[in-house]
């Protein structure tokens, strides 16, 4: 969690009031291609962040998030790992998806 927090601070140097929420859903509540729990659930990492970070800061943040997630999944012995993405939210309506390869 500390590495995720540090990555967010790179792009969003706001006063210390950053909240990180973890969610995990039971396999029985997830479907893939319309089939409930057909295989082990693939991990997903999504960050919802405000607009305003420049492309270089967003790129650095996503690379830091990728490193933190890679380390966490490597140390846990889990197969596969999520590729971090960030969805930016403006102060008024709408959203866009930020992908590290897009910048």
How is this structure best described in words?
The chain has helices spanning 2-11, 55-76; strands spanning 31-32, 35-36, 46-50, 85-89, 96-98. The mean pLDDT is 76. The protein has a 3-stranded mixed sheet with strand order 3-4-5, with no helix packed on it. A two-stranded antiparallel sheet has the order 1-2. The two termini are 25 Å apart. With 103 residues, it is of the alpha+beta class. It is globular. The protein has a domain at 1-11 and 44-103.
Strand order of the largest sheet: 3-4-5
- Poorly predicted runs are none
What is the count of DSSP helices, taking H or I runs of 4+ residues? 2
Helix-residue proportion: 25-40%
SSE arrangement, N to C: HEEEHEE
Shape: globular
SSE topology sketch:
Elements: H1 2-11, E1 31-32, E2 35-36, E3 46-50, H2 55-76, E4 85-89, E5 96-98
Parallel strand pairs: 3-4
Antiparallel strand pairs: 1-2, 4-5
Summarize this, please?
With about 100 residues, the protein is an alpha+beta fold. It has helices at about 1-10, 55-75; strands at about 30, 35, 45-50, 85-90, 95-100.
């Amino acid at each position: 969690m500390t590495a995720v927090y540090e990555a967010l601070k790179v792009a969003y140097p706001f006063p210390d009031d950053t909240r990180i929420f973890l969610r995990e859903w039971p396999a029985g509540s997830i479907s893939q291609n319309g089939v409930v729990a057909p295989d082990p659930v693939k991990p997903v990492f999504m960050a919802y962040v405000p607009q305003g970070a420049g492309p270089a800061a967003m790129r650095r943040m996503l690379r830091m998030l990728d490193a933190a997630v890679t380390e966490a999944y490597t140390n846990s012995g889990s197969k596969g790992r999520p590729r971090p993405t960030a969805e930016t939210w403006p102060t008024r309506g709408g959203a866009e998806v930020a992908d590290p390869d897009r910048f």
